[in-house]
Amino acid sequence: MRLTATDLKQKALTKGNWTLNEKGGITFFTSPLLSQIDSLTHAFTTRVGGTSPEPLEWFNLGRHWNTEESRLDASANRIRLCEALSLNFSRLVVPGQVHSAHTAWISKPTHLPDVDGVATVERDLPILLHYADCVPIIIFEQHLQAVCVVHAGWRGTAAGIVRGAVRLLQQEISAKPELMVAAIGPAIGDCCYQVGDDVSRQLGASVNDSEGLIRFENEIPHPDLQAINAMQLLEAGVSEIDVSSHCTACHPDLFYSHRHSAGQTGRQGAIAGLKLNK
Ligand SMILES: [Zn+2]
How far is the centre of ligand 1, averaged over its atoms, from the C-alpha of 180 (Å)? Predict the structure, then answer.
């Protein structure tokens, strides 16, 4: 059944209260929708559970400072995360993330300095991207068992990175959007995110119908980046979307937030991997 424009809008704006999990001392959210998939391991991490020093406390997964100590600390946290989720750290792929609209298709561990999305059908090839307000997205194709993790800041969102990711899965493995599901993790909400008119215009132009996805408060645009990405996925034909209701800037005890900390902060992660044995 074809959904009407109103149905799509309602779906894009619907958010759910996700489960907070604890495993191996690490605290992370899981999407109820993706949790139903036996062959997939996934997590949206929080800042809780590690020993990263200030201002990166406590479970920083990003290479924030260009020092050996910071690199080792992020690396130790990535190892702990993989261990807690039974994912293979030696094959973990962490792309460079440059706020681009590029998603790479991979079949083995690959160095990817300048992409913001990674997709694969390989088992035992976990993918990690990191965030502090930007939108973490995991897409899964149910028939061909492909997974894709995307980083969408406002630039990536305006450039339609998730739409490009869906197209990549179509091109590489003839995946069908209607067999895809997606989870959109904790990100900065429209409660805490103000932008200028130019950014607002670019974000609005990234979907066919942006009404209601950008809220105006005293004439200042407050875009809902999660909803705009959800709308792009729905317009591309993705069947089910699961969106977290958590705003990263509203919960500084739980999440790293670029806006809340004026840029001096760590990174939480979105990680996903296809299990070795289904
Ligand atoms: Zn907020």
Answer: 29
Question: 189 CA distance to ligand 1 centroid (A)?
Answer: 5
What are 41-51's pLDDT values in tens digits?
999 999 999 88
Per-chain mean pLDDT for the chain: 95
* Ligand 1 centroid – CA 247 distance (Å): 5
Q: How far is the CA of 88 from the centre of ligand 1 (A)?
A: 34
The reported pTM is 0.97
Min mean pLDDT across 54-58, 86-90, 207-211, 239-243 is at: 54-58
Give the total number of structural domains in the chain. Answer: 1
Ligand 1 centre and the CA of 129: distance in Å? 22
pLDDT at position 150, please? 98
The 3-class SS string of the chain reads CCCCHHHHHHHHHCCECCEEEEECCEEEEECCCHHHCCCEEEEEECCCCCCCCCCCCCCCCCCCCCCHHHHHHHHHHHHHHHHHHCCCHHHCECCCCCCCCCEEECCCCCCCCCCCEEEECCECCCEEEEECCCEEEEEEECCCCEEEEEEECHHHHHCCHHHHHHHHHHHHHCCCHHHEEEEECCECCCCCCCCCHHHHHHHHCCCCCCCCCEEEECCEEEECHHHHHHHHHHHCCCCEEEEECCECCCCCCCCCCCCCCCCCCCCEEEEEEECCCC
Residue 193 CA to ligand 1 center (angstroms) comes to 7
Tell me which residue range forms the domain holding 25.
5-274
CATH number at 167 reads 3.60.140.10
Distance from the alpha carbon of residue 57 to the mean position of ligand 1, in angstroms: 20
- Each residue's pLDDT tens digit, 69-93: 888 899 999 999 999 999 999 999 9
